[in-house]
């Protein structure tokens, strides 16, 4: 009887602590209508070309108490959009995104860094053209609350980062079309 009591006294607090920790995690599904990864690249050194991907899905989690978070984003590379159909078709070709063989790119992280109570950066891994490399995103805006249009709990985030496309094997037209790519991701997610 005493041994059972000791077990209960030890296990019960551990179980409650686990439940408390688990309850602090907030999970969100990305809203594809309000999530768009954007990019910018030098064009022949004369100007900057901009584009975006129109189809994105994923999820993220945040635990403010323990200052931890996780992100998982899937980008349909076939949805590339620079506002010019002929250029978009070329970007889908094997010269660039090779969307027939690699129809998606992914970004995953379980390493969100906080500054005080707010997330400030995401250290994750981008998989593009079958190659996975680390990419860090700096969070420039983060806000959670109730969406006034539908009264659902949501969070929004803006983040920026950079990468070299040649690191992923995308070397066509270098150096005329720049190697340095600037990423800008605006995302919204609804709480599960």
Automatic annotation (TrEMBL):
Q: Which residue intervals define the domain Lipid/polyisoprenoid-binding YceI-like in the entry?
A: 27-190
Point out the coiled-coil segments of this chain: none
Where in the sequence is the signal peptide annotated?
Answer: 1-23
Q: Return the InterPro entries for the record.
A: Lipid/polyisoprenoid-bd_YceI, TTHA0802/YceI-like_sf
What keywords would UniProt list here? Signal
Q: Does the keyword Phosphoprotein apply?
A: no
The record's listing under SUPFAM superfamilies reads: YceI-like
Gene3D superfamilies hit by this protein: Lipid/polyisoprenoid-binding, YceI-like
**Family matches, as PANTHER family:** PROTEIN YCEI
> Under what name is this protein listed?
Protein YceI
Q: Which organism is it from?
A: Nitrosomonas mobilis
Gene this chain is encoded by: yceI
């Amino acid at each position: 009887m005493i041994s059972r009591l000791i077990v209960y006294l030890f296990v019960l607090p551990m179980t409650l602590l686990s439940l408390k920790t688990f309850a602090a995690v907030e999970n969100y599904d990305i809203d594809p209508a309000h999530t768009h990864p954007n990019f910018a690249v030098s064009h022949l050194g004369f100007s900057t070309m901009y584009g975006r991907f129109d189809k994105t899905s994923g999820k993220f989690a945040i635990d403010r108490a323990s200052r931890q978070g996780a992100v998982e984003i899937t980008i349909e590379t076939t949805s590339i959009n620079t506002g010019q159909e002929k250029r978009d078709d070329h970007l889908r070709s094997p010269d660039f995104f090779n969307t027939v063989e690699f129809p998606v790119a992914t970004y995953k992280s379980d390493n969100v860094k906080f500054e005080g109570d707010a997330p400030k950066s995401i250290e994750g891994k981008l998989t593009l053209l079958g190659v996975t490399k680390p990419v860090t995103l700096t969070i420039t805006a983060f806000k959670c609350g109730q969406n006034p249009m539908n009264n659902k709990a949501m969070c929004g985030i803006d983040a920026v980062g950079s990468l070299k496309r040649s690191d992923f094997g995308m070397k066509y037209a270098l150096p005329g079309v720049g190697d340095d790519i600037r990423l800008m991701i605006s995302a919204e997610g609804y709480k599960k």
